Amino acid sequence: MENINIKQSDGAASLAKVYAIANQKGGVGKTTTALTLGEALTREGKKVLVIDLDPHANASVHMSYFPETVTTSAHDLFFDDADFKSLWGKIVKKREWVGFDFVPASIRLSELEVDLKDRKNKGMVLSNSLDEVKEYYDYILIDCPPHVGVLLVNAIVAADIVLIPIQTDFLALYGIRLLFDTIKILNKVLPSPVKFRALPTMYDGRAGACRKILNLIRRKLGDKVFSTVIHMDTKFREACASGRIIFDVDPKTRGAQEYMQLAREIVRNENA
Ligand SMILES: Nc1ncnc2c1ncn2[C@@H]1O[C@H](COP(=O)(O)OP(=O)(O)O)[C@@H](O)[C@H]1O
Ligand SMILES: [Mg+2]
């Protein structure tokens, strides 16, 4: 496992936009979006950091960082607040087969609820530590755990935008209610309301139910829904099983093309 030194990107003047990829429902495409969008953005010439903040560590395992052997991880951010700068240098990793930098998770992230119980401003820890690395990246993507708690709150507080993958099936809308409740509570205490964008995932245009749900999502959330829709594509599972990103499995496959389209839509929105 190789640690890297954070280097300033050439001419980087602006600070990274932080996207928390969140949905309380599991299996909706959060981890897939974090890794695939991360790679797509690097293919658009952006400097990207992906952070695995889920104690299940699915993104880390996908990147061949196995929780039992990882010694420095996102967990450290919540404890070593003496020197964030040198800490980032230790926890940011680089795999040669992807363009983005990566911070792995640790199963110990699940203990934070108890460990931070009496910590003041415990929802601000990630936001404060990200301030140290924002100048080195264009985008920071956080893969969030599928439950409400101190990690999700830290991610939402740190985020410029909460990206909510919504699986286009009929149970999907139940999952996001809890997330919107969390956002509503945070909006009462944060200086400005949380911005969010929804990403329809696992869409199957042949299924009437899918089409209905997509229409419903667009009706309810309007321009908060990305134009890009991610279809079902079996290549995602193949990519996951082989520890690769879909672009290495088949760059022409629909899923790969659609995440490229999403990356362009995000960059376009930023410049609009
Ligand atoms: N668009 C898609 N089409 C088909 N399978 C997908 C798609 N997106 C994700 N998957 C697969 O679905 C499973 C769950 O996705 P994942 O990204 O891990 O969800 P989450 O992080 O929300 O739990 C994984 O096996 C993944 O490879
Ligand atoms: Mg996941």
Helix-strand blueprint:
Layout: E1 17-21, H1 30-43, E2 48-52, H2 58-62, H3 84-91, E3 93-94, E4 101-103, H4 112-115, H5 125-130, E5 139-143, H6 150-158, E6 161-167, H7 172-189, E7 195-201, H8 208-221, H9 235-241, H10 246-249, H11 254-271
Parallel strand pairs: 1-5, 1-6, 2-4, 2-5, 6-7
Antiparallel strand pairs: 3-4
The structure holds adenosine-5'-diphosphate (ADP) and magnesium ion (MG).
Magnesium ion (MG) is lined by residues 30-31, 54, 58.
Written overview of the protein:
It is a single chain. With 272 residues, the protein is an alpha/beta fold. The chain has a single domain (17-271), classed as P-loop containing nucleotide triphosphate hydrolases (Rossmann fold), CATH 3.40.50.300. It is built from eleven helices and seven strands. A seven-stranded mixed sheet has the order 3-4-2-5-1-6-7, sandwiched between helices. The radius of gyration is 18 Å and the shape is globular. The chain starts with 16 loop residues before the first strand and ends with a helix. The model has no long low-confidence stretch (mean pLDDT 91). Bound molecules: adenosine-5'-diphosphate (ADP) and magnesium ion. Magnesium ion binds at residues 30-31, 54, 58.
